[in-house]
Design goal:
This protein is of the alpha/beta class. It contains 7 helices and 10 strands. It has 2 domains: about 5-10 and about 20-50 and about 95-210, HAD superfamily/HAD-like (Rossmann fold, 3-Layer(aba) Sandwich), CATH 3.40.50.1000; about 50-90, no CATH class. Helices cover about 30% and strands about 15% of the residues. Helix 1 (about 50-60) packs across helix 3 (about 85-90).
Length: about 210
């Protein structure tokens, strides 16, 4: 495996295995100290689209109006429903790990979750799946602007250059850039869209190539 060039138009992130970076020739990274992996949760570790949509559907929101990747408060406000009503209807047993994620997290020495999911839902899902990250921060741990890698870096006592943030949305990409961290796009999620300069992992286990 190696980092591969994606030249020309970038299409969907999914595809064959391996890690690719736009604008770089195929090469093997020089050995370096292992990086700490930080993961978004929804759309990255777990396929939760149906779980996230179900409360809104129950509250009368048409499926075609539902979007993913927003802050929960923003999505609820868009549809005129309260966060409390949404959370009352959210079922944390519905989301399932993407194929290969269990094997990925089982092989990590140090890892964390940084998600703008509500804490009660996120913690329930981690417990159900038997995942034990060293640190898990959720919406209540951040300011109104949403998730931020800064408190994760502070807790680990590291800089952005010492971590990799794996996510599936433009907001995840912006979080990584703001912290000076390497961003890895979760290309196993068909909704993930790469931008030039992204490192794209086609499968969860491909993340290990970047660490």
């Amino acid at each position: 495996m190696c980092l591969r060039v994606v030249r020309g138009s970038l299409g969907r992130a999914g595809g064959h295995g391996g890690v690719r970076r736009a604008g770089e020739q195929c090469h093997r990274p020089e050995p370096a100290a292992a990086l700490i992996a930080i993961f978004d949760l929804d759309g990255t570790l777990v396929d939760s689209d149906e779980a996230l949509a179900a409360p809104l559907l129950e509250l009368g929101v048409p499926r075609e109006r539902i979007t993913f990747g927003r802050l929960l408060a923003d999505e609820c406000a868009l549809h005129g429903v309260s966060v409390e009503d949404y959370l009352d209807r959210y079922d944390p047993t519905v989301a399932r790990p993407f194929a290969g994620v269990d094997e990925l997290v089982a092989g990590l020495d140090r890892w964390a979750v940084c998600s703008h999911k509500a804490r009660v839902s996120g913690q329930a899902e981690l417990a159900r799946l038997g995942w034990q990250p060293e640190l898990a921060l959720f919406a209540e741990d951040f300011g109104p602007a949403g998730k931020d890698l800064a408190p994760v870096l502070d807790a680990f006592g590291v800089t952005g250059a010492e971590v990799v943030f794996v996510g599936d949305t433009a907001h995840d990409r912006a979080c990584a850039r703001a912290a000076g961290a390497t961003f890895v796009l979760a290309g196993w999620n068909a909704r993930a869209r790469p931008e030039p300069g992204d490192v794209v992992a086609a499968r969860p286990l491909d993340v290990l190539e970047v660490l």
